[in-house]
Amino acid sequence: MKYYLIYLWSFIGFPLLDYHETHNCCCSVKLCNRPDRGQYQEGIQDYSIGIQQNNGHSPDLIVLPELAITGYNFRDKAQIEPYLEVKGEGKSYNFGRHLSEEYHCHTLIGYPEKFILPKPQSGYKIYNSAVLISPTGKIIHNYRKSFLYETDEQWGCEESPNGFEAFNLEIRGRVFKTAIGICMDLNPYKFKAPFEKYEFANFCYKNNVDLALVPTAWLNTSWSEDWTAKDVAKYSALYEKKIPFEINNQDKLNDIILSPDEGSEYKREVPDKKTARYWILRVDPFYTNTHFGKPILFVVCNRSGVEDKMMYAGSSSITRFNGGSSHLDTRTGQMFIDFDLFGALGQGTEGILVRDVEL
């Protein structure tokens, strides 16, 4: 029996997932409520402070959010151009490599990729990517987002030519089949595919994936496309109030996303439960198919806060699907699932979620 230290950290939408062979498995999530577009140095400093506050726990795998240190809501190609990075170069990669080398771990970081076309072609393509970096600073895998959201398209992003991919990730002598999805990858393709197609989750299930890692910039259920300047000002004002840095290491809050909703008042300290439950709904094949003795760990790290007219959902979470049969109680309409929840952070907090997870 092995336990792995899971460190899921989100700031500016930044997850950190860590595996460590020990008698305890831990998952820490740090969420940042200041996802300012293009604020590299501020983002890096806050990420570093978050790791330092995780007293004594050195991660094995760090997963940061979608476009972790650049922000996400760029209005066009010209605006994102200064922040594009060639794979293996640039501030995002250098920061991820620094974390890997400093903490002797793997790091997954989202970034806006500039892919220079090979000769005789000219020009470049833009991808919304996430690169996995080894403890020695080498690139293990570079994943490009397959399903694009309208914001990706407005700044010139293209779909991955390879689609979803599964690869082997060795951590402390054990090999995990791993897949990365980025935000919209969890949704039906272009919101037009049948809901029950579950493209990403079915890919993971059919390819015997152990770790499904999903950095996101997912929007809050309190947000609307119809927001006016008054709405933006209202919610932005909530983020001007300083709240304590959240270090959540109490198992008693593991199932918080299943507790009843607490009315319509927006509370930064409470997860966006509708969003967190929707993520679970979108990986239906993880619990409606059986996979006895082969758990699937599902990690979502989301950004939080207000960026221009967008407000993100935070609520980074970790869920383990154990592989047993699920069933529907026809009397109550409740679905019973063989899974374990390992907590979630607030929809608008900075913090770290620490949990023990056995794999």
User: Portion of residues in helices?
Assistant: 10-25%
Estimated share of beta-strand residues: 25-35%
Shape: globular
Head-to-tail CA distance between termini: 8 Å
Q: What is the domain total for the residues?
A: 1
Count of alpha and pi helical runs? 8
The description of the largest β-sheet is:
7 strands, mixed
What's the CATH architecture?
A: 4-Layer Sandwich
Oligomer: single chain
Helix/strand/pairing category: alpha/beta
Radius of gyration: 19 Å
According to CATH, the homologous superfamily is: Carbon-nitrogen hydrolase
Residue runs with pLDDT of under 50 for 5 or more positions? 10-35
Describe this structure in words.
This protein is an alpha/beta fold. The chain is 19% helix and 26% strand. A hairpin with a 2-residue loop joins strand 12 (304-307) and strand 13. Residues 10-35 have low confidence and may be disordered. The protein has helices at 40-52, 77-80, 90-103, 150-154, 199-206, 229-239, 273-281, 285-288; strands at 3-4, 7-8, 61-63, 106-116, 124-133, 139-144, 166-171, 174-180, 211-216, 246-248, 296-302, 304-307, 310-313, 317-321, 327-328, 335-336, 339-344, 351-354, 357-358. The strands form five sheets. A seven-stranded mixed beta sheet has the order 6-5-4-3-2-18-10. Strands 7-8-9-11-14-17 form a six-stranded mixed beta sheet, with helices on one face. It has a single domain (3-358), classed as Nitrilase/N-carbamoyl-D-aminoacid amidohydrolase. It is built from eight helices and 19 strands. GO terms for molecular function: protein-N-terminal asparagine amidohydrolase activity; protein-N-terminal glutamine amidohydrolase activity. InterPro entries: C-N_Hydrolase, C-N_Hydrolase_sf, Nta1. It comes from Dekkera bruxellensis.
